Structures are given as structure tokens and as C-alpha cells.
Recover the amino acids of this structure.
């Protein structure tokens, strides 16, 4: 009888230890996801909105830059460093997001898209504005150079936009989220 009692005690002890060891793991699973900046993602919609709100901020900067460039290339050129720094900040924020339930496709597509926008502020827009500041937009060669840069931007942007939209759609479907129209897209469509 003593042997059975010792065996039962050992089993109870092991179960108790197992519960104590697994409790933090179960508790961690219940904690909401957090970005490095402390933003909590309680739902897939929170995760989606975090990414899209940053995209909206960057696109609004691009729209502002375009509006300023239409008035003064000097004024637009002066905004490039500010907008590049803001794009860099957005990239850091998105990189600070954990994968959502081991799914990082949407986040990674957003990072590639925002890296592209940063490159626009650092290189492509800078090149276009430099050509304009030198009076190149009044020459056939300068106009051709601007058009070549613009076409390259357009091709790459279309590809990255498709990739991001596709990743967002898959994310939304996976978590049964309804996609809603993006206000910034309506604004862009009006301008085109």
C-alpha cells in the first residue's frame, strides 16, 4: 500500500509542477500583441488599422510634396528631409510590430512598400526636383529624364501596391474582416 501511495504522490507532484510550469505559457497566450511603441493589437482590425494609418500618413506627405512642387520646387525640395525622416519613423514602427498569430506577410509587404516611399524621398523625388531647380524641365532632355524617373516610380509603385493590397486582403479574409474603402485612395483617385 505504501508503494501505491508514493506513486500517487509523485504523479500529483508532477502534475502540480507541470501546471506551474505551463501557467505562464497559457497566460502569455492570453496577453494581447504589442508593438514596440506600446500599441496593443487586441483584434486583427487593430493590427490592420495600425499599418494603414501609417500608410495614410506617408501618402499624405507625398500628396503635400506634389502640391508644393506644383507651386515651388524650392519649397518642395526643403520638405524632402522631413518627409524622409517621417517615412523612416513609420518603417521603424512597422518593423516593431510582432507577427499577428505567426503571420507576418501583411506587415512585411507594408515594410517593402514603406521602404519604397522612403527611397522616393531620398532619391527619386530629389532627382526630379534637382532637375527642375536647374531649369531642366524647360529642356527636352530634362523633361525626358523626369519622365523616365516618373515611369520607373509608377511601375515599381504599382507592383508594391498590388502586393500590399493582396497581403491585406488575405489577412482580412483569414480573420473574417470586412474590407472598407480607404479615404486616402478616394483622394488620390479624385486627383487623377
Amino acid at each position: 500500500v505504501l508503494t501505491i501511495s508514493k506513486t500517487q504522490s509523485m504523479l500529483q507532484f508532477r502534475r502540480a509542477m507541470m501546471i506551474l510550469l505551463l501557467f505562464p505559457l497559457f497566460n502569455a497566450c492570453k496577453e494581447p500583441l504589442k508593438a514596440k511603441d506600446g500599441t496593443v493589437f487586441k483584434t486583427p482590425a487593430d493590427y490592420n488599422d495600425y499599418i494603414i494609418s501609417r500608410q495614410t500618413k506617408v501618402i499624405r506627405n507625398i500628396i503635400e510634396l506634389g502640391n508644393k512642387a506644383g507651386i515651388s520646387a524650392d519649397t518642395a525640395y526643403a520638405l524632402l528631409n522631413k518627409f524622409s525622416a517621417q517615412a523612416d519613423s513609420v518603417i521603424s514602427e512597422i518593423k516593431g510590430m510582432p507577427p499577428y498569430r505567426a503571420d507576418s506577410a501583411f506587415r512585411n509587404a507594408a515594410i517593402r512598400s514603406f521602404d519604397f516611399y522612403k527611397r522616393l524621398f531620398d532619391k527619386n523625388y530629389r532627382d526630379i526636383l534637382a532637375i527642375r531647380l536647374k531649369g531642366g524641365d524647360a529642356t527636352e532632355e530634362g523633361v525626358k529624364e523626369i519622365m523616365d524617373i516618373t515611369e520607373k516610380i509608377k511601375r515599381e509603385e504599382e507592383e508594391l501596391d498590388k502586393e500590399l493590397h493582396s497581403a491585406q486582403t488575405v489577412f482580412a479574409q483569414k480573420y473574417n474582416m470586412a474590407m472598407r474603402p480607404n479615404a486616402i485612395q478616394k483622394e488620390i483617385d479624385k486627383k487623377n
Summary: The two ends are 87 Å apart (CA to CA). DSSP finds six helices and two strands in the chain. The chain has a mean pLDDT of 87. Residues 140-174 form the longest helix (35 residues).
